[in-house]
Amino acid sequence: MGSLSPVHWAIVIVVLLLLFGSRKLPDMARGLGQSMRILKAEGRALQDDDRRDGPAPTAGTDTAERANPAAHPATGADGPATAQRDAS
Predict the structure, then answer these.
(1) Domain count within the chain
(2) Which domain holds residue 12?
């Protein structure tokens, strides 16, 4: 009961032919195929961009600040809040 038998597929095809006509169905299938190719290409491009960019940096600090916080006096020992109080 879960899968469609060949008879069910034949009925679906006949109904589609009656609804859309034999001229529009190949055009619709061609358009669907082009859309799927574009979607796949864009998905690959996004994955390639993510691979090229590398891992995302953590919020607010870079690796040099985490390694040696004293080398960056603008952030201070306690972080940006200390630097803002000292500057005022």
Answers:
(1) 1
(2) 1-50
CB 20 within 8 A of CB 28: yes
Query: What residue type is 40 in one-letter code?
Result: K
Distance of alpha carbon 25 from alpha carbon 59, whole angstroms: 51
- pLDDT tens by residue, 15-42: 988 888 888 888 888 999 999 999 999 9
The mean of the pLDDT values for the chain is 76
| pLDDT value at 63 more than 70 | no
